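User: ok so my PI wants both of these folded by tonight, can you help

Assistant: No problem, let's get them done. Here's the first:
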Amino acid sequence: MNYYQLGILLSQGILVSLLILMLFHLRKKLGIGILFACLGLFQFMQVFLSSTVYVELAKNFLVSPGSSILFTASLFAILIIYIKEDASENRKIIYALLITNIVMSLLIESFGWNIKESSTYNPFNVSTNLFNNNAWVLFIGTIALFLDSLLIIIIYEFISKRLSSLFFQICLTMLIVVSFDTTFFSITAFWNYDNINTIVISGLISKGFVAIFYSVIFSIYLKHFDTREFKTNYLKINDVFKPLTYRQKFEIAKSDAIKTSEEVKLKEIKYQTLTNTSSVGVFHTLSDGYTTFVNPKWCEISGLSMNEALGDGWFKAVHPDDIEKIKKEWKLATIENRTSETQYRFLLSDGSTKWVLGRAAPEINDNNQIIGYVGTITDITDIKLFEKEQILLKEKAEENEKEIQKHKNHLEDLVKKRTKDLEEKNKELESFNKFFINRELRIKELKDKVKELESKIQ
């Protein structure tokens, strides 16, 4: 096995496939004409290479890079355009390749007449094998291309309805098509060759391997780089090869309209089901705030019926003190192009109030203009009551704390007063003790002096 040549062929396959995918990916910006021009160049290159270059990968196993790499890539381009675009684009590329083949055949044949003349001068000794191909081979190649284009569409449609894997859809389609192309072209164009079996087997193996290789690359692209939905095909196979009649266009438009209408109805049913079973109130208004819809939960919370709520009627249920707050927040949200959020009260017919949290998000059109609002209201009365209870408990706790502090201050004052009184009493007691002690001392001195005088008298 000639691994060096195999590596070159794989590199060429990667380059060609990436080029096709890049031009296809940029078709909206650059136009698809560049891709058509590139495929036309591939057609010329594959005819030129098929008449000049063959690679021996193994003994008696010859591969044409032009036929295996370039021609197979062109078939993949037809398939990817069929998958992602409409019939008109697919028709364009098929016609472009057929016309390219026909023009190229005529030009090669005509220039071949120059080569056959003895007066022709070839100073650089360039190979002229390209012009030796007979018209029959080129004619068979053009017919094969047309049949390949038909088969790609028919087989892909058949397989895609039975297999969910995109890779296998593409791979099986292309394996069948390249197998047919190789067998049909080789047998029809080279039926009188001695090595016809080798040509067919080599072509089947090489194109089959390249088809699997391309299938991997193209599947990765479709799954991860061009994730838009595939075109739904309402056309028959012959629509690809002829312009659409007005009747066909009408039928397609009618089918699209019916499908769109059914989708809209289905979305409306889903929306209605969701809003009717929602645990929050749902409403819709126009850009000026005119209410066009409220769900049953909204009516339950507000105490109004749907007819009473439509237009500006819902303001009748709003607490008078909260109306200006709602209008101010809504106007500010409109200016800033954001979701509004307001807490306000509904004043019910029995005189009770119900707190709600209202949110309204703007609907924006393609011109970045507000065309309406979709919003919700959530009953937060229990939360408000809980908050009120918490506030009352906090106020009561603060009052109790003040009362305790008052008693504490009073006790402290009493303690200070009693302490001062005790200190004064202690001072008086100390003074009394000092006086008493001094008195006792003086009495003792007097007694001593009396005793001393008595002793003297005796």
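One down. Here's the second:
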Amino acid sequence: MYKELIRPAEISIKDKKNIVKGNVIRAAVFARTNVIEVLTAGNESFYLIYYKNSLIFGDKLDKVEEGSFINKAFHEGIVIESPHPILKAIIPNHSVSIPNKNKLFTQLQIRYSLQEIAYIATTLDSFFDKEELVKMIDKIFFHYRRSGNFMKSFQILQILHDFVPTLKSAKERLNLQEFNSYNDFYKSSSLPSIHKRDPLFVERHCFQNRSNPDIRHFLEDICRKQDSLLELLLWLEDPKADSVEKYTGMALKFITMKEWIVILGELNINPYQVLPEAKSIIEKMIQEERFETAALYLLNFIHDLPASYDHILNELWGNLNASFVGKHLDDFIFMSQHLIHEDSVKHLEQKVFQLAVILLEEYDLKAVYEKLLPIQKILPHSAVIRKMNHMLAILEDPDQMMELGDYYAEFKQFDKAIDCFFWEMELQPQDPTPVQKISRMYQHKGMVKEAASYQKVYAQIKSNQEVG
């Protein structure tokens, strides 16, 4: 239901000299990296890679290869499916230009450290040949080693080994004696100690092992200091109702309160029980006469609203049209049970009649009767339910077609009424009554010529009777 309240995120992509527009289908967050999947109007899939919220590269892909970084991100990362309010925070710009592929790594050196470039290279294996990326990472490794920076060269080896675990040369180099002390440091030191010397490694490690409560807690501490959006996304992945207040303030840095209400609803956390501000949001919608929008916000939790919302429900019940109510019938039957009182019986009966008219346009008589039957618990003497019950009783009786037609006419089902009156006209060709009723039905349908034709037939039959 909340999907009706959220517009899909759109993005414009400039690729060389071409500009394509599309809707974001989903996003995957994987530590410092985000992957965005975009479906264009031409049904083509673009994938965009971001590092620290800056676009690195992207291109059109016919399929995502198993084992690639993009595949891993959508299987092991935090995945946000569209439509979702938080997507606009994950995507910093809704108009992007894909960098020149041939100059990409030269340009990256301006903004990022060599260690970061080595890691970024591992995220681009859907767009570059894997051997080419391995050579680039190797080049960074040998640069550090030649300069005597063994700690940095060891860090690059770890990135390379994670990227291609089967690469024999990386395994062998990791076990070289010159790297023993660094191996020991990473194996024996605490995460805070390692983080001081290698934050990229720790953030990736913690993200990949976030199912461990202690590791997850440390990752949240890191995010609290430098990336509140990732901290919020971690909470959305495993939300706790008792911490909503804490994360509400964080969420409002990126989205509106209305959008936060939607997100909590999607998480099956009742925003109307945990957010005092939610009530004023709904009341403002009512004041602005946006009754359907207010209802869409509330209906998911219609069975569990605080008593203070009763006046809002009464206002909605009085102002929502029957067509909308019919689409959400079960929820509104519950609402009517909750709100029914002596003064509202007449109004409720009018609403039931309107519902019957709308439902009969789409469903057969028996189906409509069954849909409305629960209302009998609220309105045991409902004339609408009683009439429909009687209609079902005479539905197959050829001698009762005139009466059935009158009922259909009462419920504004003019075509069905015409069928009944036609049947009666065939059985009683000298009776002017069904002809006159057919003429009236065509008048109600706005079919003036047809109504006039049957009025003439009616007049002729009446004239014949008078002559006879």
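The mean pLDDT is 90. Residues 10 and 23 are 4 Å apart (CA to CA). Good luck tonight!
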